[in-house]
Model the fold of this input.
Amino acid sequence: MDESEEEKQYDCPKCQDQLGYIQGEWPNEVWIRCSCIEWRRAQRLMKSSEITEEFKKLGFKNFNTKGKPQVIQDAYDCALEYFQEFDAIKCQRQNSIALLGQPGAGKTHLLTAVANNLINRLHVPVLYFPYVEGFNDLKDDFDKLEEKVERMKKVDVLFIDDLFKPTGRERKPRATEWQIEQMYAVVNNRYLNHMPIMVSSELTVDELCNVDEALGTRIYQMCKDFTVVIKGDRKILNHRLED
Ligand SMILES: [Zn+2]
Done:
């Protein structure tokens, strides 16, 4: 086997997966921590975040605000500022972010960009919970539900995507008593323990409160420093319709 072929066996050729290497000569040898430790940490966090392959690519740089209404720029600024201030505010009561309103305006993209940056740059554990698919997966499996709800309570940052996503022509919020109960248990626990959430929803704050006053109020209290409600002409705002 030639050397280059051998090297390919390692995730990190520099330390040959030893997470460090010896530098200098006896008696002054020192053990150097390899920089791949950080990369490995981010990889592990990304895996446990349940962020999909496709979503891993979503960042601030590939979010287009050019020619978009001011409110889209506001949402972008809000998300970026939230990431930049995260370390300073993470233990406060108002330590969370909500991007609300208009479907297709890029709310999920922006919050996923925050999540990816938290994981890759600050090495903060994040859990992605897509509201509709997440509950579909859990509804028939009590053990799985219990385990997931525990993780949702304990992870450093919880990203709830498309909370109460409305359905049908009347745009009726999707929220059974059971779903509300689970969400409230998670969000209230996080509120009491000053643990951040990131929420995207087509509903406004008032509409969230109409679904469930206690849950809506909690979300408002946690997110009020970083909340943007996107409203307006769907044709202008929906960047998925472009190209
Ligand atoms: Zn290494």
User: Anything to note?
Assistant: The first strand starts at residue 20 and ends at 23. Residues 235-243 have pLDDT under 50 and may be disordered. The pocket of zinc ion is lined by residues 12, 14-15, 34, 36 (CB under 6 Å).
